[in-house]
Specification:
This protein is 54% helix and 14% strand. It is α/β, with parallel strands linked by helices. A 5-stranded parallel beta sheet has the order 2-3-1-4-5. Helix 1 crosses helix 8 and helix 2 crosses helix 4. The protein binds shikimate-3-phosphate (S3P). The site of shikimate-3-phosphate has 11 residues, from helix 1.
Length: 168
């Protein structure tokens, strides 16, 4: 089966939005940032969606944005950190393409995400740690996993491109 979409999976700060554009240009594909798609559709930043309508509304928009990808091919998609938690989303990702877990230790993620409110779920340490632990089992169901903390974005792309050429 030919793979036409690659989904980057992982916690906030794992590098999905950094690796995504690099990978898409190496593949000659388009880059889709699912959070940006949601913001564009709603006309407001993610933090406003959370503040005004709450997380469950955001999750419905996230699912709808994922569904819309059925109409797009040859794209690299950076999923938000929570998008791979709902089973229906994971099934959809599996149906549409190939998933790569950008695996990064919590200590490193903590240094990468400023507590500036742009990520409503990146709060105090105990809550972030609990969220991270609760999501790991889902991330680990991805088709491919890369430890990213000691690798440059270029190296990460190289590993994905190699693996993709074997997987297609
Ligand atoms: C979220 C991660 C964010 C964004 C939203 C919720 C999460 O995306 O979708 O704030 O639940 O982990 P990034 O992983 O790109 O920061």
């Amino acid at each position: 089966m030919t793979i036409t979409r690659v989904f980057l999976v992982g916690f906030m700060g794992a590098g999905k939005s950094t690796v995504g554009p690099l990978l898409s240009s190496r593949l000659g594909w388009t880059f889709v940032d699912l959070d940006e798609e949601i913001e564009h559709c709603f006309g407001n930043p993610i933090r406003t969606i959370f503040e005004v309508h709450g997380e469950s509304h955001f999750r419905s928009m996230e699912k709808a944005a994922l569904e819309r990808l059925k109409d797009r091919k040859n794209c690299v998609v950076a999923l938000g950190g929570g998008a791979f938690v709902a089973e229906e989303n994971r099934l959809l990702v599996r149906e549409l393409g190939w998933s790569v877990f950008l695996d990064c230790p919590l200590e490193v993620l903590l240094t990468r995400c400023p507590p500036d409110g742009t990520r409503p779920l990146f709060q105090d340490y105990p809550r972030v740690a609990a969220l991270y632990q609760s999501r790991l089992p889902f991330y680990q169901t991805s088709d491919f996993r890369i430890e990213v903390s000691n690798r440059t974005p270029d190296e990460i792309c190289g590993l994905i491109v190699n693996r993709l050429s074997n997987a297609s």
